[in-house]
Write a structure and sequence with these properties.
Elements lengths: L1 H16 L12 E7 L4 E10 L2 E10 L2 H14 L4 H15 L24 H18 L7 E2 L5
Parallel strand pairs: 1-4
Antiparallel strand pairs: 1-2, 2-3
Helix pairs in contact: 1-2, 2-4, 3-4
The structure holds zinc ion (ZN).
Zinc ion binds next to helix 2.
């Protein structure tokens, strides 16, 4: 178990130091700001959605390593997925980090399983969830208010 935990930490550190899909996305048709006031994490999610498919996803932000790694890995995970598939992924991921779902119930989470450990740290759950809540808001975006993890379930 220790080895697995170390591996998970390595993946998170790698993504937080070298975030993938980092930077504004030219041609994005969705853009939503999110923040996690508890930790000070901020993220902006850019999406290019065409024909019900997430063609591209980028993010810009600053925050703790969990929030950065989560946003980085999320953009990788949702790219190429249909909006419906991406929403399902959101639900599985959310269940994973809140401890409602065990790893083996969600084989399709792949690398995202590295976040399974955060369910033991309630404060960290918001860090891991920030990018996803922001993404969810971007899917149904009508513009308007920034997303915050406060008040979210
Ligand atoms: Zn954080």
């Amino acid at each position: 178990m220790t080895d697995l935990r170390e591996l998970y930490q390595e993946v998170i550190i790698d993504h937080s130091k070298r975030p993938r899909n980092f930077g504004e996305l030219p041609g994005a048709n969705r853009k939503v700001d999110g923040q996690n006031p508890l930790c000070g994490d901020k993220t902006t999610i850019y999406l290019k959605i065409e024909n019900g498919v997430v063609q591209d996803a980028h993010f810009v932000g600053a925050g703790c390593s969990i929030s950065m790694a989560s946003a980085s890995m999320m953009t990788e995970a949702i790219k190429g997925k249909t909006v419906t598939e991406a929403e399902e992924l959101f639900h599985h991921f959310h269940a994973l980090i809140t401890g409602e779902e065990r790893d083996d119930d969600a084989p399709d989470l792949g690398k995202l399983a590295v976040f399974s450990g955060v369910c033991e740290y309630p404060v960290r759950v918001k860090c891991a969830a920030l990018a996803w809540h922001t993404f969810k808001a971007a899917l149904s975006q009508q513009g308007g208010e920034p997303v915050t993890t406060e008040g979210s379930r």
